[in-house]
Amino acid sequence: MLLLVLLVAYLMSGPRASEHLTSGSRTAADSTAVTPEVGPQAPQLERPPVAAPETVRVFPQTAPLAPAVDSTALAPAATPAATPSAAAPADSAAAPEATAEASEQAVREALASYYTDLRAAPFDAGAHFAPTVERFLLLRGTTPAAIADNLATNHFPEFQDYRASIAPGSLRVSAPAADGSRTANYTEVARSFRPTLQQHQQTRTQVRVRFTPDYKIEYLRQEKVIENTLIP
Q1: Residue range 202-218: average pLDDT?
Q2: pLDDT at 39 (0 to 100)
Q3: Domain that holds residue 216
Q4: Does residue 3 surpass a pLDDT of 90?
Q5: What pLDDT score was predicted for residue 111?
Q6: Is the pTM of this model over 0.70?
Q7: Distances, alpha carbon 111 to alpha carbons 22, 106, 115, 116, 175, in Å
Q8: What is the dihedral sign for C-alpha 155, 139, 149, 165?
Q9: Rounded Cα gap, residues 175 and 15, in angstroms
Q10: Count of structural domains, the chain
Q11: Residue 9 falls within a domain, yes or no?
């Protein structure tokens, strides 16, 4: 009981100084909330709002494109090709002319060889005549062998020192026939010594000769005697 009485007496004796770490007296300043001091600040400059940076698209560099070239402008002017109808006549005209000249030359060479072999025996008829000869002077349906025999019997003994040739400008050669043969017409000029007459004989004769495609004689005839002169 004594303790209880002492406790009540203590409580009724009034407040005592607090043992907390606070000041013993409170002032108005203590009861006012203290705002922390803020030092002088530099005036705030108003800056314009910064615009959002513009997105810049960067394209990779490429070589400049060359302007399109008009193919028709660079293409050389086309040369008009000769039409077959225009070129063909010229070619066809040149070809027959060349063939005619070649044929005439071949005929000249064949006759020159023939007249050279007639100068003296023996005569190789096979080199000048076709295997079958329709006519040779007065012989008909003959052969080179028969012609060689005839010349050996009649020509060489009687026509000595024989010389014959084509009169200049007289040769005419036809176009080829269906079988390829060609006919030549010319004037033969001949001169020889005739032992039986003891005179020289000079003749001009119109001759017709037909050649095979390989220029062998298959027909030879003296059609007309133009001149026949005997010279002592």
Answers
A1: 98
A2: 47
A3: 100-231
A4: no
A5: 98
A6: no
A7: 166, 9, 6, 9, 18
A8: positive
A9: 169
A10: 1
A11: no
